[in-house]
Every structure is written in C-alpha cells, then in structure tokens.
Design brief:
With 125 residues, the chain is mainly α. It has two domains: 53 residues; 66 residues. The chain is built from five helices and no strands. The two termini are 28 Å apart. This is Transposase. InterPro entries: RNaseH-like_sf. It comes from Kitasatospora indigofera.
Length: 125
C-alpha cells in the first residue's frame, strides 16, 4: 500500500508542476471539477506523447551509464517544446529543436557522471 501511495504522490506533484493542477481560484464545485479534469487530461496527453516518443529498450540494464545518446524526452521537455510551438518563439523551429537536443545531451552527461560516481563509491553513492 505504501508503494502505491508514492506513485500517486509523484503523479500529483507532476500535475502540480507541469499542468497547474493547484492553480485554481474557483467558488463552485463544478468549476473546480472542470479545472481538475482539464489539468489531468493535459498531463495524460503529455504522458502519452512521452510514451510514444520513448524508443524500445534493449535488454541492457546499464544502458544509461554507457550510452552517448541524449536522455529520452520527458514531460517537462515536451511541455516546453509545445509551449514554444504554440507561442511563436523568437527563434526558429530548427534552433528550438537544437536547444532541446543540446539540453538532453547535457542531462545524459550528468546522468552518466552520477552513475559512474555511484559505481566507483557504492558506500556513499
């Protein structure tokens, strides 16, 4: 039961941070219900895009530690890209995608470094 609660808490935190689940000022239950429904629908849409963009995994459990690929697209990254596409950016689409790729490569480098440090020193990692 405790493990299920953790998953639910993470889902609510993601909804609060990414789609504004807690950004409401309503007086009636109907308005609150509509806001919550739209926020959860937006999060489900983003999660479906993430699942669709995630490549099939290989059988290697240490893939993130050895791979030079960027990390997979995440909900915040897709939200940022959609926001930039819906609000005309100052930069071109090519530059926006280049920035996203650079950022994910940077995050993959940080992840590899973190994994190497944890493998090198398992006591403090």
């Amino acid at each position: 039961m405790a493990g299920t609660r953790w998953c639910i808490e993470e889902c609510f935190q993601a909804a609060k941070g990414q789609v504004g689940l807690d950004h409401h000022q309503v007086r009636h239950w109907t308005a609150w219900h509509r806001h919550i429904t739209l926020a959860m629908l937006a999060l489900a849409f983003l999660a479906a895009l993430v699942a669709d963009a995630t490549p099939a995994r290989t059988a290697q459990p240490n893939r993130p530690a050895r791979s030079t690929d960027p990390i997979d697209l995440t909900v915040p990254e897709i939200r940022h890209l959609l926001g930039a596409l819906l609000n005309p950016p100052n930069a071109s689409l090519r530059r926006l995608l280049h920035w996203s790729n650079w950022r994910r490569h940077h995050q993959a480098t940080a992840r590899r470094s973190h994994y190497r440090r944890r493998i090198a020193d398992p006591v403090t990692g």
